[in-house]
Write a structure and sequence with these properties.
Blueprint (H helix, E strand, L loop, with lengths): L5 E7 L4 E8 L1 H7 L6 H18 L6 E9 L3 E9 L3 E8 L8 H5 L2 E9 L5 E6 L5 H13 L3 E7 L4 E8 L7 H11 L4 H6 L2 H9 L4 E3 L3 E2 L1 E2 L5 H11 L1 H11 L2 E4 L6 E4 L1 H15 L6
């Protein structure tokens, strides 16, 4: 039986090829439960969620990695995020019927921005123009531009599961392109249903039964949103007392909804006064202004 919500790393002995396999079930369902997505949008979001989990495992960091696609087409926004704690979340936004077809047909003229935000240090961003027939084409272009390591991805998703397979050539002194091409060719025979349904050992055996493949212990992934009342209150404090008070006067309260998990936060006039009074006391004498 396949492990749910897990990522496996593997290496192929006597080569400079490594890889990752990810299956997300419960966490993918948690994302779907928060919005009603058309099938075409659901497919792109599922592929992106699997992809961000794979990307998060290719780097060593403490923080989060975000992939954002913005375009002028019917599917105009897609955002997915993974953290070093192996959590994922994602949303998509569309404004009209999204056609099947190329990325340009769905997203229009679009760019893919991948941001790595470590808990300490500066953020790193890489941006590529989104081209090709599938999301994996854009991500492979990102790797070619930023990592300069030969990398291939295969992504699949349905109403139950999203899954991904990443293959990457490790850096080395010798030029052994034939070895990489051999393993890449074998990986390219994988079918969507195999990626979605087969257990990692079974899938790797089907692809590389003549190779010595070392499969490492799985890493568990889960859905988790990073929104919290504390974060919302920090945001309100940054806006300032006058602006928040004016919003309450005009709207009756301040309401904030999280797009990722649909959590709803609401503050009335009493809440706002208490929030800024507490901040005032923590900073010592002075005024709210």
């Amino acid at each position: 039986m396949r492990e749910r919500d897990s990522l496996h790393r593997f290496i192929i002995d006597n080569s400079r090829v490594r890889g990752e396999l990810v299956h997300l079930d419960a966490s993918w369902q948690a994302i779907l439960q928060r919005n009603e997505y058309p099938d075409v949008v659901k497919k792109q979001l599922g592929d992106a969620v699997a992809a961000i989990a794979l990307l998060s495992a290719t780097i060593k960091y403490k923080g989060k990695i975000i992939m954002q696609i913005r375009g002028d087409g019917p599917l105009h926004l897609l955002v997915v995020q993974a953290t070093s704690d192996n959590t994922v979340r994602g949303i998509a936004r569309w404004q009209s019927e999204v056609p099947k077809g190329s990325l340009q047909a769905m997203f229009g003229n679009a760019t893919m921005l991948i941001t790595i935000e470590p808990e300490k240090g500066e953020a790193y961003q890489g941006i590529v123009e989104l081209k090709g027939d599938a999301l994996c084409n854009g991500i492979e272009a990102y790797f070619q531009q930023s990592e300069q390591l030969p990398t291939r991805l295969w992504l699949a998703s349905d109403n139950e599961t999203c899954a991904g397979f990443l293959l990457q050539e490790l850096p080395g002194d010798e030029n052994n392109s034939a070895d990489w091409e051999h393993h890449e060719h074998l990986a390219a025979t994988v079918k969507d249903q195999e990626l979605l349904g087969l257990e990692p050992k079974e899938l790797l055996h089907r692809l590389y039964h003549e190779e010595d493949v070392r499969l490492f212990d799985s890493e568990v992934f889960s859905f988790r949103c990073s929104c919290s009342r504390e974060r919302i209150e920090t945001m309100l404090l940054s806006l300032g007392y006058d602006e928040v008070k004016q919003t309450v006067k005009e709207e009756g309260n301040v309401a904030v909804d999280c797009e990722f998990c649909n959590a709803h936060y609401e503050y009335d006039s009493v809440d706002v006064e208490q929030l800024f009074a507490s901040e005032h006391q923590s900073k010592g004498p002075g005024t709210l202004q």
